Amino acid sequence: LSASNSLPLCNFSISNNDSSIYKVIVNQTLYPYNIIEQQVGKLLHAGGHFVPTTCRSEQRVALIVCYRKREQHLRMFLDNIHPFLQKQNLDYTIFVVNQHGNEDFNRAALFNVGYLEAMKLYPFDCFIFHDVDLLPEDLRNVYKCGDQPRHMSVAVDKFNYKLLYSTLFGGVTAFRLSDFIAANGYPTVYWGWGGEDDDMYLRVVKKLKKSITRYPIEIARYKMIRTHDHTSGTANPHRHTILYSKYDYGLDGINTTNYTIHRVTFYKLFTLINVTLPQEP
Ligand code: NGS
C-alpha cells in the first residue's frame, strides 16, 4: 500500500494533434472469449479489474454495461474497451448486468443494480453507464467523471456522427458517485425501449439542478456494432406518459430498485451480475 501511495498521480492527456496517436482502430473481428482473454486480459485482476502499476489513479471507475442476449456485441465490446481504458491509465472494473428472465428489458434499472452491486465490492467514485454496442473511437474521450454528469456518446456513426437532439442522454453517460446518489440513480419504471435516458436527463436538470456536459463532437465519437444476433426490444407505449408526468424522482430510483441476484461471477474480462427484475403488470 505504501509503495502505491508514493506513485505519482496518473494524468492521461493527449495534447498532440497527430491523429495517429488518438484515433482508435476499432477491431470488429469476432473472437472467442479465450482468445480475447489472451489478447487483452493479461494485466487484469479477477472480474475485469485493471489497476495502473506506474501511477496512482485519482478515480476508481465502474463501467456498468446493461445486457441481454448480445453475446457477439459483448465479445467485441470487451476486445475493444479493455485496451482503450488501459491506454488511458484508469483504475477501472467492467460490470455486465445481465437481465435474466422474460420480463421486458429495463435498461435503467439494470444500471441501478450495477451501481448497487459494484459498491458492495469496491469504493468506486465514478460510474460510466454503457450500452454494449458502442465502441469509442478516440482516446481523448477519457472515461473519467467530472463535476457535471457527462453525455459521452455524442457522435455515433449510425447517426452520421451528429447529435440527434440537444438533450439526448442515451448510449454512454458518466456520473460522479455523489451526483448519481443525488439524482436517486436511474428510473426503474421504464420497461421496454425508450424514455429512460430522457428521464435521467430531467433528473440531472431538475433534481441535481446541474446541466450535462459533453466532450467536443470530434472527440466523443463511437462506432455502433451491427451484427444480426439480436432483435431490438419493442418500444414502451407508456414512456411519454411517465416522462411528462413530473413525478417525484425521490420516489423512484436507487431507493426502489427491486431485484433478485442469481449469481455474481468474476470472469477474467468482466464481473457478471445475473439478475431478475420483477415486472409489475
Ligand atoms: C428518443 C427516445 C430515447 C432514445 C432516443 C434515441 O425518442 O429514449 O430517441 O433513440 N425517447 C423517448 O422515446 C421518449 S435512437 O435513435 O438512438 O434509437 O434514446
TrEMBL record:
Keywords associated with the record: Glycoprotein, Glycosyltransferase, Membrane, Signal-anchor, Transferase, Transmembrane, Transmembrane helix
EC number, as in UniProt: 2.4.1.-
Location of the Galactosyltransferase N-terminal domain: 31-145
Location relative to the cell: Membrane
Family the entry assigns: Belongs to the glycosyltransferase 7 family.
Any one GO MF annotation of this record: N-acetyl-beta-glucosaminyl-derivative 4-beta-N-acetylgalactosaminyltransferase activity
Primary role: Catalyses the transfer of galactose onto proteins or lipids.
Annotated source species: Adineta ricciae
Main location as per UniProt: membrane
GO BP terms, alphabetized: carbohydrate metabolic process; glycosphingolipid biosynthetic process
Parent sequence residues shown: 89 to 369 of 383
GO cellular component, one term: Golgi apparatus
Protein name according to UniProt: Beta-1,4-galactosyltransferase
Topology within the bilayer: Single-pass type II membrane protein
Domain annotation Galactosyltransferase C-terminal: ranges: 150-228
Pathways involved: Protein modification; protein glycosylation
